Amino acid sequence: MGGGRSGDRGRGTAGAVGQPNLLAPADVPALSARFWVLVVATGVLAGLAGAALMALLYASAHLTYSYRSGSFLAAVEQAGAVRRVVALAAAGTVAGLGWWLLRWWTGPGGSEVSTALWRDGGRLPLRRSLGTAVLSVVIVGMGASLGREAAPRLAGAALASRLCDWARIGTAHRRLLAACGAGAGMACVYNVPLGGALLTLEVMLGVLSLRLALPALATSGIATAVSWTVLPTGPTYQLPEVPLSASLTVFAVLLGPLAGLVSVGWVRMIRIAHEHRPTGWRLVVAPVLVFTAVGALAVPYPQLLGNGKDIVQLTLGAQLAAPALVALLFLKPIATAGSLGSGASGGLFTPTLAVGALLGSLAGQGWTHAWPGPAAGFAVIGAAAVLAAAMQAPVAAIVLMLELTRTVDALMVPLLFAVTGAMLVSRRLDTPSIYSVRLPAQ
């Protein structure tokens, strides 16, 4: 699952299907009492960091679009066309100058969670990582077409890495704790404790094991509970009741392979964008140009701004007509990949969900002419299938959809069919995950 097959252990290359595995269970020494103290500390720190970063995100959105509550898209639409372009140009300026200055201040050293876990023994520079997290969440609040989860994931992993420095624990435990911190950061900002733990195991560690599962579950649970003091406790997406339907089941079987092909194209697009990230003085200029272009596209399509959460919600409510679905399915991946390729740092989780939801909703609109079914179900199935294949994490993707919506129990069988079909196609084409594809070449 998610690249965690025993035969894959030891390959450790970005070209392998899934993620390069870090640790087989036997590679992790017994978890001491000191390690469990670090697990609790990591959970608390990740929860506090996630809550602080989300407060910064909302403050950035408020200053840029006068956003207060409710839908971010509504605030963007009320801001007007000119303000969208200006806001994205400003976000590009913040991104370009901010990361150039950060690299000048902190010196060499990466701040990618995947690289740290799979190449650097779980070590992350604290100043560089926290600075990157702050810049990332600020530009997402200003409308950058990137995910918000990259910042809390990075902060959680970096704080765990620093705790390991103080405690002087070994490399295997450091990697495990850094992965737990990253999963906890993700868990607390989306209120998905079980999904966060599974992301730790299936995506970041690439192996499902009881020994590794316990600290992952504890860290994500603690971080989520800590974040409840500040962040909402409800589901991320509001979903109408979706009854069990033969139409949805057959639709899921047919959509799965198509979702797999779309995820393959999406991952390859991310790889190309990452390989062409600018360096030197171009790092200052490229984000300004790309972000301004995204702002111009947002004049007719304001849904492009932000991480894609509102796109998913619109598809769940069947509020997008077929022409808009086609346009957004084409433009959202370009906007996100272009923003990433300009040198900006951001997440891909919600943009990937948005791509899948758009695909499912568009295909569902055609399917209903032959066999009617609930529109929300089509979108959820598409989102889960594309997410699973793009992350190479089928179990985590299904659980995340359950936790993000809290109401898709009747969709379990269709979800399993769609995710299986998507995974088979992506694995047949030897496609890595959206995380391992961003690893630097060795």
From TrEMBL:
GO molecular function, a single term: chloride channel activity
Q: Where in the cell is it found?
A: Membrane
Q: Where are the transmembrane segments?
A: 35-60, 81-102, 176-200, 212-231, 243-267, 279-299, 311-331, 343-363, 375-401
Give a yes or no for keyword Transmembrane helix in this entry. Answer: yes
**Cellular component terms per the entry's GO annotation:** chloride channel complex
Membrane topology category: Multi-pass membrane protein
Answer whether the UniProt record assigns the keyword Transport to this protein.
Answer: yes
- Keywords attached to this entry: Chloride, Chloride channel, Ion channel, Ion transport, Membrane, Transmembrane, Transmembrane helix, Transport
Q: Return the protein name.
A: Chloride channel protein
Task: Report the source organism.
Answer: Streptomyces kasugaensis
